[in-house]
Design brief:
Layout lengths: L1 E8 L3 H12 L1 H8 L1 E9 L13 E3 L12 E4 L5 H12 L3 E4 L2 H18 L3 E2 L11 H7 L5 E7 L2 H11 L4 H10 L8 H4 L2 H15 L9 E2 L7 H9 L2 E12 L2 E12 L11 E8 L4 E7 L3 H17 L24 E11 L4 H11 L4 E6 L7 E8 L2 E2 L3 H9 L4 E9 L3
Parallel strand pairs: 1-2, 1-4, 2-3, 4-5, 5-6, 8-10, 10-17
Antiparallel strand pairs: 7-9, 7-11, 9-10, 11-12, 13-15, 13-16, 13-17, 14-15
C-alpha cells in the first residue's frame, strides 16, 4: 500500500481537525482510498490545547517543515502573502501542496499553478471552496465533457445562516451574534457579511469553469448588511425569498461575475437551503442543471475535503491536470453597470394622497416599467411601506433612479434588491 508523508503548516482548528480525522479514520482511508496517510511533521508556532499531536515532530518555524522528507505540504496558516511565500518554497523544493486557503488561491492562483506546473508538482484545493462539499473535482473531472454556462449559489455559510434566521423573523444583529456564539462567524465578521468570502469562491470557480484569471478582474461585490427582516415578508408575498448569491455566467463572449443579495423564486432549489449550508446550481449542456449542497464550513467538513485531495494526490501520477491555462480562451468580465435586472424596491412614504402617483410618474419619466406596486399597512407616524417590482432595466440607471425616488417630498426611506432571473 502507498504511503503519503505529510507536513502540516498551521495548528488551528482546521489543522487539528485534519489530524484527528486522519487518526480516527485511518483504516477507512486505507480501505477506500488505498493509501496510508502519515503526518510526519507539524509546523506550529504555538501549541493547541485542543489537540495533542503525540510524538509527531513539531517545528516552530513553519518554513522548516519543507526541509523534512515529506511528499506534500498541507498549508493551513491562512492569510495571503506569508501563505504565498510558503507555497512557493514548497513548490520549488518539489513538494506537492494541499490547501484550504481560498484567499491565496484567489489572489495568486495563476502564479502558483504556473510555478507548480514548471516544477512538476500539484496544488490541490478542494477545501478552499465550500469546505468538504465536492465542487472543484466535479468541475475539473466529472463535468470535463460538459460546457458549463452558469454557476450560481450561496457560497458563504455565515450569510446563509443569518438570512435563513431573518426569514424566520429574527433581526440581523441578534442573528449575527448567534452565529458568532455558535462559531459560524468570526469576532470580526466583515469578510463574510460584506460578501468577500463568497466573492473569492466564485472567482475561483469561474477560473476553473471559464478560464478567468486569478486574481480576476474587479467585479461587483455587495454584502447582506442592508437587508431587513421585513424584506423577507414582503418578498414572500410575491413568491420570493432572499439569498446572498454568487454568480459566474457566460453571456455570449463575455462573463458575468458578481456576488450580492438577490430575490430568488421560492420554488427554486436554492431557496430551500437553510442554515450554514452551501448550495450551487451548475448549468451544463449535456446533463442539464446540477444541484449540489453541503456543509460549507467546520473542522470535519474541511478535513473531509483535505483528505479527498490527499487521496487524489496519492492515486494520480499525471501533472497534466494542473489548473493553469495561460491566457488563451479567457472571457472578459462584463461591466456590472451594463447588466439588466428586475428590482425589488421598498419605499417608505408619507400616507397622503398622490404619493403613489408621484412614484409611478417618476418611474415612467425614466422609462422604467412597473410589474407590480402595492401599498402595505401603515407603519405608524403616518407612514406606509410601498413595495414595487420593476420590469428589467439596466444597472447603470439603478442608482440614479433610487436617488431621485428618495428626493421625492413624500419619500422618507428606500432600499432595493436585485431579482435573479430563473
Amino acid at each position: 500500500m502507498k504511503t503519503l508523508k505529510i507536513g502540516i503548516c498551521g495548528w488551528g482548528n482546521v489543522a487539528t481537525g485534519l489530524f484527528k480525522a486522519i487518526e480516527k479514520n485511518s483504516n477507512l482511508i486505507q480501505l477506500n482510498g488505498g493509501v496510508n496517510l502519515t503526518i510526519d511533521v507539524i509546523g506550529a508556532r504555538r501549541d493547541n490545547p485542543k489537540c495533542n499531536p503525540g510524538k509527531t515532530k513539531i517545528e516552530r518555524d513553519i518554513f522548516d517543515v519543507i526541509k523534512h522528507d515529506i511528499d506534500v505540504v498541507v498549508e493551513l496558516i491562512g492569510g495571503v502573502e506569508v501563505a504565498r511565500e510558503l507555497i512557493i518554497k514548497a513548490i520549488t523544493n518539489k513538494k506537492h501542496v494541499v490547501t484550504a486557503n481560498k484567499a491565496v488561491i484567489f489572489h495568486h492562483g495563476d502564479e502558483l499553478f504556473k510555478l507548480a506546473q514548471e516544477n512538476g508538482v500539484k496544488i490541490l484545493f478542494e477545501s478552499a471552496v465550500c469546505a468538504g462539499t465536492p465542487i472543484i473535482k466535479l468541475l475539473k473531472e466529472e463535468l470535463a465533457a460538459n460546457k458549463v454556462s452558469k454557476i450560481s449559489g450561496m457560497l458563504n455559510g455565515t450569510s446563509n445562516f443569518i438570512l435563513s434566521n431573518m426569514e424566520e423573523g429574527a433581526e440581523f444583529d441578534s442573528t449575527l451574534k448567534l452565529a458568532q456564539d455558535k462559531g459560524y462567524a468570526e469576532p470580526d465578521p466583515a469578510f463574510d457579511i460584506e460578501g468577500m468570502d463568497a466573492a473569492h469562491k466564485i472567482g475561483i470557480l469561474s477560473s476553473l469553469a471559464f478560464g478567468t484569471s486569478l486574481p480576476p478582474e474587479d467585479f461587483f461585490v455587495e454584502g447582506i448588511t442592508k437587508i431587513q427582516k421585513s424584506d423577507f415578508s414582503y418578498a414572500m408575498d410575491m413568491g420570493y425569498t432572499i439569498k446572498h448569491l454568487a454568480v459566474a455566467k457566460i453571456n455570449e463572449s463575455s462573463l458575468e461575475l458578481r456576488a450580492h443579495p438577490a430575490l430568488i423564486s421560492l420554488d427554486s432549489h436554492l431557496a430551500n437551503l437553510k442554515g450554514v449550508r452551501n448550495g450551487m446550481e451548475i448549468d451544463t449542456d449535456l446533463i442539464g442543471k446540477i444541484h449540489i449542497a453541503g456543509s460549507g464550513a467546520g473542522q470535519e467538513s474541511t478535513a473531509s475535503g483535505l483528505i479527498s485531495d490527499l487521496i487524489h494526490l496519492s492515486n494520480t501520477n499525471e501533472i497534466s491536470d494542473q489548473f493553469y491555462k495561460g491566457d488563451e480562451g479567457k472571457y472578459p468580465v462584463l461591466d456590472f453597470s451594463n447588466l439588466v435586472f428586475q428590482y425589488y424596491f421598498y419605499i417608505e412614504a408619507e400616507d397622503k394622497p398622490g404619493v403613489m402617483a408621484s412614484i409611478t410618474s417618476l418611474m415612467a419619466s425614466k422609462e422604467v416599467g412597473i410589474e407590480s406596486i402595492v401599498q402595505k399597512e401603515e407603519l405608524g407616524d403616518s407612514c406606509v411601506p410601498i413595495i414595487l417590482i420593476t420590469d428589467p432595466f439596466k444597472e447603470s440607471d439603478h442608482a440614479e433612479l433610487q436617488k431621485e425616488l428618495l428626493n421625492l417630498d413624500s419619500v422618507r426611506a428606500i432600499r432595493s434588491i436585485r431579482i435573479e432571473a430563473k
